[in-house]
Design a protein that fits this description.
The complex is a heterodimer of chains A (about 1150) and B (about 400). Chain A is built from 30 helices and 13 strands. Chain A has about 1150 residues and is an alpha/beta fold. In chain A, strand 4 and strand 5 (about 80-90) form a beta hairpin. Chain B folds into 3 domains: about 5-245, Metallo-dependent phosphatases (Purple Acid Phosphatase, chain A, domain 2), CATH 3.60.21.10; about 250-335, no CATH class; about 335-405, no CATH class. In chain B, helix 4 links the parallel strand 3 and strand 4 (about 110-115). The chains are: A alpha/beta (about 1150), B alpha/beta (about 400).
């Protein structure tokens, strides 16, 4: 990109001002120095250029003369993509305009020319004033921005290592760093300390255990001592209590001894004396009462027996009378029932007589009226059959009448031929279902439509004309290949146009270059040598003379030599330009060749298209490929319409064939039925066949009705015959009985049969009743005879009725029986009384024998006296035993083996003193109890403390955790050391590597710096500093200086060198942009300023360089450093 | 039935396990008190096998052990035996002689602790008489054989001797009550219940000499599933015995050849296969993984060793009962480094590593770290292993390459 002209139309104090930057001639550096004293507008110009490129900022300092809305900057710019004439206004949108038309341009128009640089990047790299030079330089040295990175990236591949190394460093530092506190290792150590503390808290050390054990042992000792003391006291207290408790026993013992002295000596007596004595005394009294009573009862019985009288005749009849006892009840009941039975019999006979009267046959008895069972059953069956037969005959007659009515008005025509009909019916059915007539109409319609469509499609192919076959045979390419051809044509035409443009440009360029080279005057080496020799000779002469004349001669020779040298330099430039001309010429040839090739392709494609059109009979010139593609689509449609028409025709023909075949089949079928048709029309045939089928159906129905009628007539005849047979049987049965002939009707017969059946049921009942009455009368007569005979035997007065006879007999018998029973009872009683009397006498005897020894022993007959003496002896024995037991108890209570002295001691005991001592001891014991409880509590507590220490593994677990942590730290420490040693090695190696590999930008910067300092500083190098690197300047003598120790001027030269190096570095990779600087050499002396201009000239060899200054002498220096520099004076604006 | 007893030794109760695998809190929860768990299993075994006696041949605790909780735990477990009517016979080993707590132990009445003077206890089971001899360490060291001090064997009895001895001396152990195997065989005893050496060993001969080993190994130096010996003496006096595993967890080095593996997943499959094959007859396996061989994954492994280790640990955990304490790389192939980094590696090899500046920088860092480490670990990085430094450098280079 190059700035051709910058117009300050309304900007700052400028109005309609412009600076033009002509291209330098040939290969001369494109260096421009703009001079303007203070306030002339240098800074305005500098700012205007940036504003043009990137827009006027909202707050601008250049609106003091012209209003914001009036501000306008213009520029002509050329770049690789062509020339641009631009204008810039102030505003928010559409501020970039085309200068000629004032139409808005997109910012991208400039963006492309700037190679994507934004304002910041551009000002940092390519537009410098004092401030940006310094600040930008610092940031480069801090390795910031593109240039900084370029400077310090020693070479590709290791660019990111610093980053990775820093990560490793930080990772290590997170675990440990010598200076610092917060890192993983210290966290580990804190945890270790915590674990030790935790463990101490839960653990139980031996010393603590021992202390607990000792406490327990002491508590146990005190407990045992307290227990012993308490036990001693208790023993004494118990002794006293026992003594006091024994005193009442002692008193009771003394009392017993006194009572024993009053009683007889205890002596052993037979054991039964004491117990039996009471019984003996009771028996003695009992016998005294019972004996007189027994004797009196015996006498009483003897007297009663003598007074009794017996009746032997009556007793002899007793068994017979007992047999008649049961008979008498039954006979009496039957006699009472008899009148009732006789009434029942009369009633039955009366009923039977009434039934026979209803039969209206005089003289007929009930027995005669009863019919034999077979005849009665036969009559009943015939009555049942009569109803059935009558009903069957009536129904048969009705059915026959109905069939006759159905047959009326039926013609008497024979049915049609069966086999032929069977063929015709399915045929008609199929044809009806196929609906051929409708299909035929549809097909005709479709055919018509297809014909019309085809005609239309073919018409659309005009101007082409011909048959479908012709059309199909046409050999044309596919639409896709035609489209590809179209693409090729368009591309070829574009190529041709582009090639033409390139040719024009190159031809012009080549012409200009040729003109330039022709103008130059060649200077030969010999001429140069001669001029140098002349100058040297003049110098020698001048040295010899040292006069004004010799000096002028030398000056002239020197001038001539300079001119020759200049021409030689010019010539070197010319050679370069000639080389360029040759290159451009070659490019021109290439462009021409491309142009020709493209044109040929265009012609070729167009010829092909014409050929295709010709095939269609059209003159193809000027016809477009798109039309052809379109025509091909129409052709496809026409061919489709043709195919469709073909299909329709075929379909229509097929239908016609089917109709003909069907008509023929129908005709044949009709002929077989004897109904041939004159014409074979399908519709007519179908109608005729359908009518014929209907007629055949009617005939079939008539035949079926007639057969029905015949069957019904036969049924009527059969029913009438059955009725006649029945009448014959009926007459026969009636004649066989008292009914006789003429036989009655079935209904009459049913009534008579019912009466006969009733008689049949009653007759046996009447017989049974008569027999029963006769038997009862017989029983009563027999019983009366027996009773009368018995009465005579006993001399009782006779009685005609059994009712009065029977009680008398029974009375007599009962009397006799009672007397007999009384006698037997008295005899038994008398025997019993005698027996009791004997037993009592025996008991009296035994009692006397038993008490005789006692009477002898005690010397008295009185049993009462004997009893008193035995009692006294028993009491003495008892008291003596109690005394012995009490004595034993006392000994046991006193716990003495020999009780005698103990009892003596007890007898001598002072009771009051003993009680007092016991009270004292109780108090002591209570106190000792308390002490013992306390001691026991202490012991229990100590034991609990000891037991409570437990044996859990918490402490061991904490120790395990601590060991694990130690292991972890050890492991991590080893890894840390290994890794960090690796990092150290890499860092040192990286430093070494950087020293041996220097970046190209560093090399350029070093060269530029050497140039700027006129060789005082010979080079630059880097040195690691902390995590980054710093730049070191090397002096000619070999000394090195960090850049921050350089003087301000030198530092600015370094900055400039860095920018120059960056500019040159970037120039190799992207399009150049104008480099613009605003008085950056304030601190430079003249020598260095000249060197700086030489550097700028070097840069200007690659792109446009503009330098703004207010120092007039710099213009001179610039010209001296670069004779081709173009000077501009702002004052001229 | 005969006489049955269990013989163990070197319980080292509450001596912590030493493994990085315990950083996993899940595993720590399961096996941090493994020494207790395995002892409890020994007691359970006594009860379930209904033995007549438990013999412990010394080293109940670590010498440095000062927690009474440990002693009380032992006592509580012995009470369980007492309740079941099973006797226990204990001699003190060198560690117990050092330990303060062993003097404080108050065992239940059925437990007999032999004194520093040789003793013998007779037990009778049916017609069988069994004489149990023992002698405790009086001091932490016993430079001379203790065998001559034992009582002569009882006539008409099976003689069993409890002895804490390093035998002829074993690697890693000072000589403690040294004693030749042949002397024990010739002593007229029937069974020597030894202790002290933590690795199981059985010697047959005139006398059965058995070193049961530590029942619960504490680190990779005590690998395998620890066991006790269950001994049966039949009525004819015939002795048979077999080992019974009681360890909760066993350590094992597991080497995985990764030669030819090209995929990360295949690598993990190989590791899982190796771990599965290395399972021990106890509930947990704590493995130290070592990868050997030549694999294209070497570079990635060097760079992401931490990741590979974490993944291996996770995968192992998912297998159930398998834990990885560490992943060690011992890969044979050195990945060639190309480009600038290669040049850098060359510089390191040729110029930096031999230079005093490098040695100085490393030493300075080492001293800084050493002074910052907890006192117990001051010696941990006294010397830096060249192999470890090399591995560190390779890892750093791998990571730089990964980044670049």
């Amino acid at each position: 990109m190059r700035l051709e002209r910058l117009g300050l139309m309304r900007y700052g104090h400028f109005t309609d001002a412009a600076v033009t930057f002509p291209r330098p001639a040939g290969t001369a550096p494109d260096l421009h120095v703009i001079y303007g004293p203070n306030e002339a507008g240098k800074s305005t110009l500098f700012s205007a250029w940036l504003d043009l490129l990137f827009g006027i900022p909202t707050r601008t300092a250049y609106n003091f003369l012209h209003d914001n809305r009036a501000l306008r900057i213009e520029a002509d710019i050329s770049s690789a993509s062509g020339a641009l004439a631009l204008a810039r206004l102030k505003g928010n949108t559409n501020t970039l305009l085309d200068r000629a038309t004032d139409a808005p341009l997109p910012e991208a128009a400039l963006g492309a020319a700037l190679g994507g640089l934004d304002r910041d990047a551009y000002t940092t790299m390519f537009s410098l004033d004092d401030d940006t030079l310094e600040s930008g330089g610092e940031s480069i040295l801090d390795s910031k921005g593109d240039l900084g990175q370029l400077l310090f990236s020693a070479s590709a591949g290791l660019a990111d290592l610093s980053e990775a190394l820093r990560a490793l460093h930080e990772e290590g530092a997170a675990w440990f760093r010598p200076t610092g506190r917060k890192f993983q290792l210290s966290a580990h150590k804190t945890r270790l300390a915590e674990l030790v503390a935790e463990r101490k808290a839960v653990d139980l050390q031996v010393s603590a255990w021992r202390k607990l054990s000792q406490t327990r042992a002491q508590a146990e000792a005190s407990y045992l001592a307290a227990r012993a003391r308490r036990s001693e006291t208790q023993t004494r207290a118990e002794q006293l209590r026992r003594d006091l408790d024994a005193l009442p026993m002692l008193q009771r013992l003394n009392a017993l001894q006194a009572r024993l002295a009053e009683l007889p000596e205890p002596q052993p007596l037979p054991a039964d004396w004491g117990s039996a004595l009471t019984d003996w005394m009771r028996e003695e009294a009992e016998l005294a009462a019972l004996l007189p009573e027994a004797r009196r009862a015996q006498a009483e019985c003897a007297r009663a027996l003598d007074t009794l009288k017996d009746d032997p005749e009556a007793l002899a009849l007793l068994p017979r009378l007992e047999g008649l006892e049961g008979q008498f009840g039954a006979i009496a009941r039957q006699q009472a029932d008899l009148p009732k039975r006789r009434e029942e019999l009369a009633e039955l006979q009366d009923q039977m007589t009434r039934l026979v009267d209803r039969l209206e046959r005089p003289g007929l008895t009930p027995a005669d009226a009863i019919l034999a069972p077979t005849i009665a059953q036969g009559l009943a069956d015939l009555i049942e059959a009569d109803a059935v037969l009558r009903s069957a005959e009536a129904i048969a007659q009705q059915e026959m009448d109905k069939a006759q009515r159905a047959l009326q008005d039926r013609p008497d025509t024979p049915p049609l031929e069966g086999a032929a009909l069977a063929r015709l019916a399915p045929l008609v059915e199929d044809l009806r279902r196929a609906d051929l007539l409708r299909h035929s109409a549809d097909a005709a319609e479709k055919l018509e439509a297809a014909q019309a469509a085809r005609a239309q499609a073919f018409a659309a192919l005009a101007p082409w004309q011909g048959t479908a076959a012709d059309l199909a045979a046409l050999d044309l390419p596919s639409p896709d290949s035609l489209r590809a051809l179209d693409g090729t044509l368009t591309q070829a035409m574009q190529d041709a146009r582009a090639a033409q443009g390139e040719c024009d440009r190159l031809q012009e360029l080549v012409a200009r270059l040729r003109a330039d080279t022709c103008a130059a005057q060649p200077v030969s080496a010999a001429e140069a040598a001669a001029a140098r020799t002349a100058r040297d000779a003049a110098w020698t002469a001048h040295l010899g003379d040292l006069t004004r004349q010799s000096a002028e001669a030398f000056a002239a020779a020197l001038q001539a030599d300079d001119a020759v040298s200049a021409a030689r330099l010019e010539q070197a430039g010319l050679a370069e330009r000639l080389r360029v001309v040759a290159q451009e010429h070659a490019a021109l040839d290439l462009a021409l060749a491309r142009n020709v090739a493209a044109s040929q392709q265009v012609a070729q494609v167009q010829a092909q298209v014409s050929a295709h059109w010709a095939l269609l009979g059209v003159k193809g010139q000027g016809r477009h490929i798109a039309d052809l593609i379109d025509w091909l689509a129409r052709r496809d449609r026409a061919l489709e319409a043709q195919a469709r028409l073909h299909e329709c025709t075929a379909a229509q023909r097929a239908l016609a064939d089917r109709l003909g075949g069907a008509a023929k089949s129908l005709g044949a079928a009709l002929a077989a039925l004897g109904r041939p048709l004159p014409s074979a029309d399908y519709a007519t045939s179908l109608a005729e066949a359908e009518a014929l089928l209907a007629t055949a159906e009617v005939l079939r129905q008539t035949a079926r009705l007639r057969a029905d009628m015949d069957a019904r007539a036969l049924a009527v005849t059969q029913a009438q015959q059955a009725r006649a047979d029945w009448q014959k049987d009926w007459d026969r049965l009636c004649a066989a009985t008292w009914i006789g002939t003429p036989a009655p009707t079935a209904r009459d017969m049913r009534a008579r049969l019912a009466i006969v059946a009733e008689l049949d049921r009653l007759a046996p009942q009447a017989d049974t009743m008569m027999r029963r009455i006769a038997r009862i009368e017989e029983d009563i007569d027999s019983f009366t005879a027996t009773l009368t005979q018995l009465a005579q035997t006993l001399n009782l007065p006779p009685a005609p009725q059994i009712d009065s006879l029977w009680p008398q007999l029974r009375q007599r018998l009962k009397q006799a029986q009672a007397t007999q029973d009384e006698r037997a009872r008295l005899q038994t009683e008398r025997a019993g009384a005698q027996e009791r009397l004997d037993a009592l006498a025996l008991r009296h005897e035994r009692l006397h024998a038993a008490i005789a020894p006692l009477q002898a022993h005690f010397g008295t007959d009185s049993l009462a006296e004997i009893a008193r003496q035995i009692d006294a002896i028993a009491r003495a024995t008892e008291l003596s035993a109690e005394y012995a037991s009490l004595h034993h108890d006392l000994a046991a209570h006193l716990r003495a083996s020999d009780p005698v002295p103990e009892i003596a001691r007890l007898g001598a005991l002072d009771v009051d003193q003993a009680r007092a001592e016991a009270e004292t001891l109780a108090a002591t014991l209570a106190a000792q109890d308390d002490a013992l409880r306390t001691a026991y509590a202490d012991l229990a507590e100590a034991e609990k403390a000891l037991e409570g220490t437990g044996h859990d593994g918490a402490a061991a677990r904490l120790e395990a955790e601590r060991q694990t942590l130690l292991l972890q730290i050890e492991d991590e420490a080893a890894q840390f050391m290994a890794r960090q040693a690796g990092v150290i090695a890499v860092e040192q190696a990286l430093r070494l590597y950087r020293d041996t590999h220097r970046s190209t930008m560093m090399a350029r910067a070093a060269d530029a710096f050497a140039l700027l300092t006129a060789g005082r500083y010979t080079g630059l190098s880097t040195q690691p500093d902390g995590r980054g690197e710093i730049l070191i300047a090397q002096q000619a003598g070999g000394a090195t200086k960090p850049v921050d120790t350089l003087s301000k001027g030198t530092r600015f030269q370094l900055y400039l060198a860095l920018r120059a190096a960056g500019y040159l570095e970037l120039a190799t990779t992207r399009p150049c942009v104008p480099f613009i600087a605003d008085d950056i050499m304030e601190t430079f002396d003249d020598t260095r300023a000249e060197a700086a201009f030489r550097l700028l000239a070097q840069m200007a060899g690659h792109g446009q360089v503009i330098y703004l200054t207010h120092h007039a002498h710099l213009c001179e220096i610039a010209r001296k450093a670069c004779p081709d520099v173009q000077l501009h004076d702002l004052r001229a604006l | 039935m005969g006489f049955r007893f269990i013989h163990t030794a070197d319980l080292h109760l509450d001596s912590p396990l030493r493994s990085l695998a315990l950083r996993d809190p899940d595993l720590a929860e399961l096996i941090a008190d493994a020494s207790r768990l395995s002892f409890r299993k020994i007691i359970d075994l006594c009860l379930s096998e209904q033995v007549d006696a438990l013999l412990i041949s010394g080293d109940l605790y670590d010498g440095s052990q000062t927690s009474m909780k440990t002693a009380r735990f032992l006592a509580a477990e012995l009470v369980r035996l007492d309740r079941a009517g099973i006797r226990a016979f204990i001699i003190r080993g060198n560690h117990d002689a050092m330990s303060q707590i062993s003097r404080e132990l108050t065992p239940p009445p059925s437990t007999h602790v032999f004194e520093g003077r040789a003793g013998v206890e007779i037990m009778t089971k049916g017609a069988q008489r069994v004489a149990i001899h023992g002698l405790s360490f009086r001091d932490p060291h016993a430079p001379e054989s203790l065998l001559p001090k034992y009582r002569p064997p009882e006539a008409d009895a099976i003689n069993i001797g409890l002895m804490h001895t390093s035998l002829n001396g074993a690697a890693g152990h000072d000589p403690y009550a040294p004693c030749a195997l042949s002397e024990l065989q010739a002593s007229g005893f029937d069974y020597w219940a030894l202790g002290h050496i933590h690795k199981r060993a059985e010697y047959s001969g005139a006398a059965h000499v058995v070193m049961p080993g530590i029942p619960q190994g504490r680190d990779i130096g005590e690998p395998g599933a620890g066991s006790v010996t269950l001994v049966q003496i039949d009525d004819a006096g015939q002795i048979t015995y077999r080992a019974r595993v009681v360890a909760v967890a066993g350590f094992a080095p597991v080497t995985v050849d990764v030669t030819g593996l090209e995929e990360w997943r295949a690598l993990h499959r190989a590791i899982e296969g190796a771990l599965d094959a290395a399972r021990l007859p106890c509930p947990h396996l704590v493995a130290r993984l070592r990868l050997v061989g030549d694999t294209p994954l070497a570079q990635r492994l060097l760079r992401d060793r931490d990741l590979a280790e974490a993944e291996a640990q996770e995968n192992a955990k998912a297998m159930g009962g398998v834990w990885v304490e560490k992943l060690v790389l011992d890969l044979s192939a050195r990945a060639p480094v190309a480009g600038a980094l290669g040049a850098l590696a060359g510089l390191i090899e040729g110029d930096i590593l031999p230079s005093p500046a490098y040695a100085q920088a490393v030493e300075s860092l080492r001293q800084d770290l050493e002074s910052a480490l907890p006192p117990e670990l001051r010696n941990a990085i006294k010397t830096l292993e060249p192999a470890a430094l090399d591995a560190g450098l390779r890892e750093v280079l791998a990571r730089l390459r990964g980044q670049g």
